[in-house]
Amino acid sequence: NAGVTQTPKFQVLKTGQSMTLQCAQDMNHEYMSWYRQDPGMGLRLIHYSVGAGITDQGEVPNGYNVSRSTTEDFPLRLLSAAPSQTSVYFCASSRGTSSYEQYFGPGTRLTVT
Amino acid sequence: LAKTTQPISMDSYEGQEVNITCSHNNIATNDYITWYQQFPSQGPRFIIQGYKTKVTNEVASLFIPADRKSSTLSLPRVSLSDTAVYYCLVVPLGANNLFFGTGTRLTVIP
To answer: What pLDDT, in 10s, does the model give residues B73-84?
Structure first.
C-alpha cells in the first residue's frame, strides 16, 4: 500500500491564482481530511469528509473548496490564492468514525507571493 | 473540547527515558487521550492512545492517573531519531476531527 499520497510536494503561486492540491489513499478509508500547518504552529483542520459525497467545514475553511467523488480521492482547491495561505498542507485518512489513528500524507509546501 | 497544556520544548541525552506530561483538566467522560509524533518535514504519525491506567506498545507507554486530568507519554531509551514534536490530543469517542496544539519539541542530544 502506498498509504496517503499528495501532489505536488512544492508549489509557488502568485496572488489570485487558483490550484488544486491532490490527495489519494489506497486503504479504503472512509474519513479524509485536510490540515494546514503554519511555521511553529500545530495543525489546523480545513475541511473533512466522512465518505464519498459528504464533506464539511473544519476550523479554517475560508478560501478553500473540497469535493469527494470517490473513496480514494479528496482534492483541495484554492479558489484565489492569498499570501495568508502560504503554509504546509497535510491530507489525512482514517477508518470509519474512529479518528484516533489517522494516517497523514507527506505534505505539500505552498508559497503564495 | 478539553484544552491540553504541554511543555513547549524538552532536551534529553541519548539513552535516557523521556517523560512528556500533558495536562487536560477539563477532560470529559467520553474523551480519549491520543499522542502523535511529527518529524521535520513530515506529517504527524499516531503513537499511542488510551483511556485510563497504562497502555504500552512498541514505541511508547502512556500513563493516565485515575482522575484523568493529565497523562504522561514515556519514551524509553531515546535515540537521535526520536527528535520530533510530540502532540497530546484529547479526542471525544466517535469524533472525526483532531485538534492539534503546538506540541512539545523534543531534542535528543548525543
So the answer is: 999 999 999 999
